[in-house]
Structures are given as C-alpha cells and as structure tokens.
C-alpha cells in the first residue's frame, strides 16, 4: 500500500517564477492538506482540499493556490516566487477532514528559490 | 492564541535515559494533541496522540502526559535509544478539523 507520494523531491527556481508541486494521497484517503516547513521550524498549514474544494486556509497569500482532482490527488501552485518561499513543502492525507484522525505525511518537495 | 509553544529546542540524552519534551497551548478549542517524529530528509510521522478526556497515554516506550487545567502536554521517551535521535514536534487541532498547529520542534540526540 503506497503512502503519500510527492513530486518533485527537489527543485530550484528563481525569484518571480512559478512552481507546481504534486501529491498523491494514501490509498483510501480523500482529504489532502499542504504544509510549508521552513528550515528548523515546524510545518505551517497552507490549505486543505476535500471533495475538490478548498475547505480551510492558513495565513498564506493568494500567490499560493491549489487544486484537487477527482482521483483525490492534489497540486500546490506558487506564483511570483520570493526568496522566503524556500522551504520543504509537505503534503498530508487523511480520511474526511472532520475525523481529526491521523495525518499521513509525504517526504516533501524541497523548493529552493534563488 | 493559535500558537503551540514547545521546549526545549534541543535535548541531549544518554542511552537508556528518559527524554522529556514539553508543550503548552492557549486555545481551549484544541481537542487533539499528536506528537510527530521527523528524521532528516523525511516527512513527519505520527508517534502517539491524545485527546483531553484522558490524562495519560502510553504506547511502548512513549508516553503522553496531559494537563488540561494547565493547558500543557508532554512526551516522555523511556529507555531512550540512539535510533530515537530525531526532531520531535508537538501539535494540536480543534474539533471537526485536522488543521494541525505545530510546535517549533525539539532536536533529540541520544548518545550511546
């Protein structure tokens, strides 16, 4: 049973560019959440998708957007990249956002903005 | 009010010793308190979690102690092993949501 898979694992972009990160949830999970983890910090909640809609959003600007597909996979898009967007982006999946159950995290996509 | 404060930032323990990490919160709506373990280059993995209806939960060498009145909870790792060396995060979420608020992390090093 595959866990949460993310791609790419590493990528380098320059300021002003746009990036798309991808996530496939654990089998049987229908909810995907995205977190940003800066170096030496705890993960910070970006947003959550359930039934192809954004259900909750953290304190992130509109440059951060996402999408969930009918197969529950998800994308995170970041426009107009800033140096401060350099971080590990984690995808987590769960079953039903109301369950407050276990979140399964992927290994992340490490984004470096130069 | 959404913060979860975690201490210490780093911890060095001898093999076989007890590792203790503490967290405190303000939001009384929080009702789920997990601890995550993260190894370098990996995503966080759930270690153990507790809800406020119990004051303690034990799974193997890992124990969560929860003090609802003080709004504090802690992770105890008994018989610490070098393989436990990792960064540990406490977290909290409110009912009907799995939006986790994470602490800043504790880097644990266990020396043989």
Secondary structure layout:
The complex is a heterodimer of chains A (114) and B (112).
Chain A: E1 5-7, E2 10-13, E3 19-24, E4 31-37, E5 44-50, E6 53-57, E7 64-68, E8 74-78, E9 87-94, E10 104-105, E11 109-113
Parallel strand pairs in A: 2-11
Antiparallel strand pairs in A: 1-3, 3-8, 4-5, 4-9, 5-6, 7-8, 9-10, 9-11
Chain B: E1 4-7, E2 10-14, E3 19-25, E4 30-38, E5 45-50, E6 56-59, E7 62-67, E8 72-77, E9 86-94, E10 101-102, E11 106-111
Parallel strand pairs in B: 2-11
Antiparallel strand pairs in B: 1-3, 3-8, 4-5, 4-9, 6-7, 7-8, 9-10, 9-11
Detailed description of the structure:
- The complex is a heterodimer of chains A (114) and B (112).
- Chain A has a single domain, classed as Immunoglobulins (Immunoglobulin-like, Sandwich).
- The mean pLDDT of chain A is 93.
- In chain A, strands 2, 4, 5, 6, 9, 10 and 11 form a seven-stranded mixed beta sheet that branches.
- Chain A has no helices and eleven strands.
- The termini of chain A are far apart.
- Chain A is globular.
- By secondary structure, chain A is an all-beta fold.
- Chain B has 112 residues and is mainly beta.
- Chain B has a single domain, classed as Sandwich (Immunoglobulin-like), CATH 2.60.40.
- Chain B contains no helices and eleven strands.
- Chains A and B meet through strand 4, strand 5, strand 9 and strand 10 of A and strand 4, strand 5, strand 9 and strand 10 of B.
């Amino acid at each position: 049973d595959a866990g949460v898979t993310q791609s790419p694992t590493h990528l380098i972009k320059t300021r002003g560019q746009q990036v798309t990160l991808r996530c496939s949830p654990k089998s049987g999970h229908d909810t995907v959440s995205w977190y940003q983890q800066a170096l030496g910090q705890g993960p910070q909640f970006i947003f959550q998708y359930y039934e192809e809609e954004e259900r909750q959003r953290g304190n992130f600007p509109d440059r951060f957007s996402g999408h969930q597909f009918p197969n529950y996979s998800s994308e995170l898009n970041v426009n107009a990249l800033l140096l401060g967007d350099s971080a590990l982006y984690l995808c987590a999946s769960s079953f039903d956002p109301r369950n407050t159950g276990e979140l399964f995290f992927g290994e992340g996509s490490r984004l470096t903005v130069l | 009010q959404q913060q979860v404060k975690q201490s210490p930032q780093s911890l060095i323990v001898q093999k076989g010793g007890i590792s203790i990490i503490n967290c405190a919160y303000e939001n009384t709506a929080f009702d789920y308190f997990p601890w995550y373990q993260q190894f370098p280059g990996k995503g966080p993995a759930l270690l153990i979690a507790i809800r406020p209806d119990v004051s303690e939960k034990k799974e193997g060498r890992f124990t969560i102690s929860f003090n609802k009145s003080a709004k504090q909870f802690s992770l105890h790792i008994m018989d610490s092993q070098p393989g436990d060396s990792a960064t540990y995060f406490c977290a909290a979420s409110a009912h009907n949501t799995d939006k986790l608020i994470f602490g800043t992390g504790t880097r644990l090093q266990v020396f043989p």
